[in-house]
Amino acid sequence: MRVTPNDLRKTNQRLRSFLEELSVTEMASETIGCKMEGIFTELLRVGGRLPNAEAVPVDRELREEMDQYRENLDHLQALLPKVHVKLLTERARLESERAHLEAANAWVRASRHIES
Hints:
- This protein has 116 residues and is mainly alpha-helical.
- The protein has one domain.
- The chain has helices spanning 5-24, 29-47, 60-115.
- Helix 1 runs antiparallel to helix 2 (29-47) and helix 1 crosses helix 3 (60-115).
- It is rod-shaped, with a radius of gyration of 23 Å.
């Protein structure tokens, strides 16, 4: 089933909202991951139903939404390196915190062993 202009308009609104939030705010990594999962699911769902505009004639309304969709995807592509850096930074922080907790745990076990 082909995508309707209304379907694509809703996807564009959700994608635009996500892009604005991503550009303006410092989202927590967990939030980014959850929201990106939802956005990518939607992009796959809608993208698989888009007609090939060169091969299939589309009406003006659908053409405009497809153009907006393409612009939104370009914007998302431009923001992905920033998201990647943020997620890598968060991963490094979590790995450092885990190593610290493991060292503290080893110290506690060793001190309990000495006391025994």
